[in-house]
Design a protein that fits this description.
Keywords: Membrane, Transmembrane, Transmembrane helix. This protein is an alpha+beta fold. Helices cover 25% and strands 39% of the residues. The N and C termini lie far apart (85 Å). The chain has a ten-stranded mixed β-sheet, sandwiched between helices. The chain folds into two domains: 35 residues; 155 residues, 3-Layer(aba) Sandwich (Protein Transport Mog1p, Chain A).
């Protein structure tokens, strides 16, 4: 009875380990490059006559009261989100946009727990290719985790960029968790800078 034994030298084992590490590092590099390429690319999301560009990795979602909305579900239930809403807030005759947004801010927090206005300031927005005056209303609120979850509520920061279009008010909104919001400010500015409204 003869046993066949394969023997490898220490140099061959070391070479095998090096090849495994090179393969792993190559796979990580390819994954990182793919993630970067999809993060920087956008897709046009259109619903109910409104359109906005969102990162390719985000998902469209139906949110009551919005014309179009999307969410980065990769970041979990408190991940960043963007939406376009036709506001039911009535424009008063001869009222400036800033005054209208200040009045809107008083009622904006009714359905939101822990609502606090953080700031109201002038902004710009491109609507259907033309520059429009707008006002940013930035506020904080508490968002509950999905039902059945034992995760505590999160403090969210949201900016509603409000503009007047064809006699109505629209809000282009971006929200993210409080700790993430400052890091995502350039994304917010890019996503809410140019929209299509009905």
């Amino acid at each position: 009875m003869s046993a066949v034994m394969s023997h490898t030298s220490p140099a061959q084992r070391a070479m095998s380990e090096v090849l495994v590490w090179i393969t792993v590092l190559f796979g990580l590099l390819v994954g990182f490059l793919y993630m970067r390429s999809t993060t920087d690319r956008t897709t046009l999301l259109t619903q109910s006559g409104a359109s906005l560009s969102v990162p390719l990795t985000w998902s469209s979602e139906r949110v009551e009261g919005t014309l179009v909305s999307a969410h980065d579900w990769r970041a979990g239930s408190f991940g960043p989100r963007v939406s376009v809403t036709a506001l039911t807030h009535a424009l008063m005759p001869e009222e400036t946009l800033s005054a209208s947004v200040a009045r809107y801010s008083l009622n904006r927090g009714e359905p939101l727990e822990g609502y606090r206005v953080l700031g109201i300031k002038p902004a710009g927005l491109r609507v259907n290719g033309t520059r429009q005056d707008a006002v940013n209303l930035t506020f904080a609120y508490l968002q509950d985790a999905p039902a059945g979850s034992d995760v505590p509520p999160a403090v969210m920061i949201r900016t509603d960029t409000v503009t007047r279009w064809k006699g109505a008010l629209y809000a282009v909104s971006f929200a993210a968790e409080r700790d993430e919001y400052p890091r995502l400010d350039s994304l917010r500015a890019r996503l809410t800078a140019d929209v299509r409204l009905p």
